[in-house]
Design goal:
Length: 333
């Protein structure tokens, strides 16, 4: 048997086994929603909510925003004396949100109001009683009301904050904080809907690229055989000194290492997993991030093993879509 006429029957059989087409099922355009709610499952970590109001002589404004974060964290900028409000909002957030770096800004201003004036009636009565028991000479006139009120301690003018008003504004801020967290969660949910649509479109793109790679002519056993035959012929240059059986075994190993069947199958598995997670009712950002990393690894391996320029181009496109997917999932709760 000549070197260039190697029996490729074993090689073709092996490549045919590797070349089995995966059954790729394309997801339908209708998205599953949370049961009974009509709401999509994914939630973003980016959101903003604002509220304001007036309680007695106090005017307040509260803002709550969140951005990407590995854990749930709340940083607050508030006037002194409102630490209890911050802790209340923190507790509500821990029950409602899973991840995100949140910033709370609270502004409380006391509007100008008339000072509180009070008369110490007991002190005034005691003063009158004392004066009534003192005999006055004819040259001294009877004490007048304005004179009595001018005595130290009889009239008190309080321009400081009203404790009852402060308690009322704290109660109002706690209630507003609860509503503000709910509003923030709603804005994050709405952005999550947009993220879900983007991610699912990216999964459709990836699936189509995998289909193209799977059906690419360069992956057929005939194409691989022809390429290997040419490489062997160029290598030998007409020499018959190499052992045909050994050469045959090496050709089979090269063909097996160049096959991308496993990478394509794993990419499809990851795509199905991403689609399933978008219908989850829990925070899935970390899981999506892991799948994005796995897709990136498969895409890199695919590009390294591609044995054709056009197949390599498909691999590079896959890598680009995977990178876009990875950027999007960084914002998923």
């Amino acid at each position: 048997m000549g070197i260039l006429d190697l029996d490729f029957r074993f090689l073709v059989g092996l490549l045919s086994a590797f070349d089995r087409r995966a059954k790729l099922s394309h997801s339908s355009g209708t998205r599953k929603t949370d049961e009974g709610s009509g709401l999509m499952a994914l939630s973003s970590m980016t959101g903003f909510a604002r509220a304001g109001g007036t309680v007695d002589s106090f005017q307040w404004t509260m803002e709550l925003k969140s951005v990407n974060g590995r854990t749930l964290e709340l940083r607050a900028r508030t006037p002194s004396g409102f630490d209890a409000v911050v802790e209340h909002i923190r507790g509500v957030m821990q029950k409602s949100l899973a991840r995100g770096q949140c910033q709370l800004t609270l502004s409380v201003n006391r509007s100008d109001s008339a000072p509180r004036v009070s008369i110490d009636e007991e002190a005034l009565t005691a003063l009158l009683d004392r004066l009534a028991r003192i005999p006055l000479p004819d040259c001294v006139g009877v004490a007048t009301l304005d004179g009595l009120l001018a005595a130290p301690g009889i009239v008190r003018v309080d321009e400081g904050p009203d404790p009852a008003g402060e308690e009322a504004v704290t109660t109002a801020l706690n209630a507003a904080g609860t509503d503000l967290v709910a509003a923030l969660k709603e804005t994050r949910r709405r952005e999550g809907q947009a993220l879900e649509e983007i991610i699912l479109k990216q999964m459709d793109q990836l699936e189509e690229l995998v289909r193209q790679a799977d059906a690419h002519p360069a992956r057929s056993p005939e194409a691989v055989r022809e390429k290997l035959s040419k490489q062997i012929a160029d290598l030998l240059g007409g020499s018959h000194s190499l052992d045909p059986d050994r050469l045959h075994q090496e050709a089979v190993l090269i063909a097996a290492r160049a096959d991308v069947r496993e990478e394509l199958d794993r990419l499809i598995a990851h795509i199905d997993a991403v689609r399933a997670l978008t219908s989850s009712t829990t925070a899935v950002g970390r899981q999506l991030d892991f799948l994005a990393q796995e897709c990136g690894r498969e895409a890199n391996t695919f590009c390294a093993k591609a044995n054709d320029v056009s197949l390599s181009r498909i691999g590079l496109t896959i890598k680009g879509v995977v990178e876009q997917f990875r950027e999007q999932v960084q914002n998923v709760e």
